[in-house]
Amino acid sequence: MSSIATKQTPTVKILANGFLIMWLIVAAFPFLWTLWGSFKVEGDFFSKANWANALFGTLTQSETGGSFTGAGYYGAWVQEEFWRAVMNTTIVCVCVVTISLTFGTLGGYALARSTYRYAFWFLLFALMFRAMPPITLVSGYLLPFFEWNLWGRLSTTIIVLVALNQPFTLWMLHSFFKNIPQDLDESAMVDGCTRFQAFRHVIIPVMWPGVITTGLFSFLLAYNDFAVTSMLLSKENQTMIPKIASFLGTTQTKGNVMFAVSAVVSATAPLFVMVMFFQRQIVSGLTAGAVKG
Amino acid sequence: MKHSSFFWFVLPSTVLMLLFIAMPIVSVVTQSFYTAHEQVILEVENCGPFGCTQETSVDQEATAALREAEPLGKFAGFDIYTDRNHLAFGEVAAAWVKSDGLPDFGSSLMNLPFYKALGFTLTYTAIVTPLTIVLGFIVAIAVNAVAKSLRGPTIFFSLLPMIVTPLVGSLILFWMVDARGILGTGLQWLADDPNLSVKASTGLMWIMLMVYGVWHAAPFAFVVFYAGLQTVNTDTLESAMVDGATRWERIRYVVVPHLMPLVTFVALIQLMDNFRVFEPIISFQASAHATSLSYAIFNDLGGETRLLSSAAATSVLTIIGIGILLSPVLVRTWRDFNR
Predict the structure, then answer these.
(1) Which residues in A lie closer than 8 A to residue B172 (C-beta atoms)?
(2) Domain A77-291 sits in which CATH superfamily?
(3) Domain for residue B191, yes or no?
(4) Which residue has the higher pLDDT, A176 or A59?
(5) Average pLDDT, rounded, for chain A
(6) Number of Cβ pairs closer than 8 Å across A and B?
(7) Which end of chain A is more exposed for a tag (fewer CB within 10 A), N or C?
(8) What is the pLDDT of residue A289?
(9) Complex confidence, ipTM
């Protein structure tokens, strides 16, 4: 699809490319820098003498003998039991994604197919709930959860995260289901299926692209959450992000910033992999809400 | 769809949202009108050979029992809203009387915790949202102009700042602008001041927080605009060109109007997200220089003494703020639907 309108003069091309290279450096360099630095000792990562020490690992060489060291990772994963937080995060993410997708597909499907006015009001309320910062709700959870002895458990946090996730999941799946032609399930119902059977046998087989995309965003919400998990989980049930935050409080005085650095790199790695494999779905998910209004 | 089947389909989500979003709002509002019980004071008269003395002591057991029996605390009405940590009517009035001129009044407002948080939150929202849209738009135009084969990797790297956990992403930036990190050293070299430190300066800290905000949110705007650019009508662009429109005029009069609905969408999402700015303040350890409403709530809830009522009052004020911020959008959605 090349037309005159998309042709460019060399200056425009150079400008566009130059700007893009700058943006890419801004976007990606911090991650590469931190990944590289996580294999150094603290004296190199935060170098008073010369910033280039972080590149060549001068102090790392004199302290450990090699120019790379895994001490930060050992300290975080083994000594500070970061693996426990990783396990907790895995449990939380798997449960949150499964439950919110199950509930979300049911609700989203109904909202997409209902022509009544209350479906609109439902979505409008969901939008308002989506605007609520999670931390404002947390102050409402604490007292009842203490009273009923629900505080600190993984299961409580999972349910809370699923609930906070619902407005977004509903909106997204609603717009995906709108794109599945209505004739499909209606013809099944003409053939004698009930509404649920039509959903089960006709809609479920064709809904996976939308569900996978929505699932990615549910996963991100659960994985990235700090406000809820840091307030509702007890110390032994902590997930990765509050654990990293707690490293900051305790370790900076002990001089073990490298624990936090390697934990940060460990927490970023799965997201990296996710973007690599699901880039198309993420992009389509981000635009789904926008383009279809 | 029949009413009954609609009901059963949405039931699970509805129950969850009612229990964990609507009920907590009620609970937060209620909590904000109550305050913790004061400690029960015992007065004991000690009589010895040298006369009697009155001694007061805290009756720990009775206090605990009272707090156990009524965990909400005692009714306080609007007291919490008007105290020094929230709307601080008394302090604001005093500052108004004392101050000479608006700037002076403003600076004394910024000493009150609630107004300090509100000031930063609003400034952050007002500055980061437009910058995000502009940067995202420029990146989208640039990506659209490069060769097709390069677009995939470009999008991959562009997505990273947005996908990465906010707490983690801001930590990564914070370590780089540390006085001993690469960006910090670069800043010192630029400013020719070896003692320059972002951590020590309020202005620099605000700028860093906003730089992080734009860095984190621009990819979202970019992706949305990039998708929008794929649907721009080439015929319109070509006819504009035939009519003698320059490249800039084509962007100004064809592309931008086409993307306008998307700008509204991005602005809406960004307003919601920027108003809840929270994680970067934790990562940057910026609370001495900048606090946000979310951070104020978090700060009240954490720590040894959980100041539930104070946090609840700030939460209610935050929710009201969100309501005011979003009211134009809600009104518009409602009108569109009725048309």
Answers:
(1) 30-31, 34, 264
(2) MetI-like (1.10.3720.10)
(3) yes
(4) A176
(5) 87
(6) 292
(7) N
(8) 62
(9) 0.90
Task: Output the pLDDT for position A4.
Answer: 53
In this structure, is the dihedral angle defined by the CA atoms of residues B83, B85, B89 and B90, taken in order, positive or negative?
positive
Confidence of residue A226 (pLDDT cuts 50, 70, 90): very high
CATH number for the domain including B186? 1.10.3720.10
Q: Token digits for A95? A: 């449960």
| φ/ψ of residue A256, rounded to 5 | -115, 45
Contacts of A54 in chain B (CB under 8 A): 182
Tell me the residues of chain A between 32 and 51 that have a Cβ less than 8 Å away from chain B: 33-34, 37, 45-48, 51
By CB neighbour count within 10 A (0-12 exposed, 13-18 middle, 19+ buried), where does B55 fall? exposed
B218: domain range? Answer: 125-289
Q: What angle do CA B69, B71, B72 make, to 5 degrees?
A: 125
Residue at B176 is within a domain: yes
Q: Which of A109, A143, A207 to mutate to test the interface with B (most CBs of B within 10 A)?
A: A143
Residue B179 has a CB neighbour count (10 Å cut-off) of 18
Q: Which residues make up the CATH 1.10.3720.10 domain(s) of chain A?
A: 77-291
**Structure confidence by residue, pLDDT tens digits, B290-330:** 999 999 999 998 877 778 888 999 999 999 999 898 888 77
> Are A113 and B141 in contact (CB < 8 Å)?
no
Query: How many Å lie between the alpha carbon of B111 and the closest alpha carbon of chain A?
Result: 23
Closest CA to A63 of A80, A79, A45: A45
Say yes or no to pLDDT of A1 above 50.
Answer: no
pLDDT of residue A5: 54
- From chain B, the residues in CB contact with A230 under 8 A are 298, 302
| B175:A131 CB<8 A | no
The predicted pLDDT at position A3 comes to 53
Q: Is A241 on the interface with B (CB under 8 A)?
A: yes
Range scoring the smallest mean pLDDT among A169-183, A231-245, B61-75, B182-196: B61-75
Specify if B171 maps to a domain: yes
Query: CB of A74 within 8 Å of any CB in chain B?
Result: no
User: Closest Cα of chain B to A210: distance in Å?
Assistant: 17
CA-closest candidate to residue B133, choices B310, B274, B302, B39:
B274
Judged on CB neighbours under 10 Å (0-12, 13-18, 19+), B246 is: exposed
Residue A53: the pLDDT is: 78
Q: Which helix (H) or strand (E) holds B106?
A: helix B102-109
Give the model confidence (pLDDT) of B66-115 as tens digits: 777 777 788 888 888 888 888 888 888 888 888 888 888 888 888 889 99
Distances (CA, A) of B152 to A209, A216, B158, B162, B257: 20, 19, 10, 16, 27
Q: Is the pLDDT of residue B57 over 90?
A: no
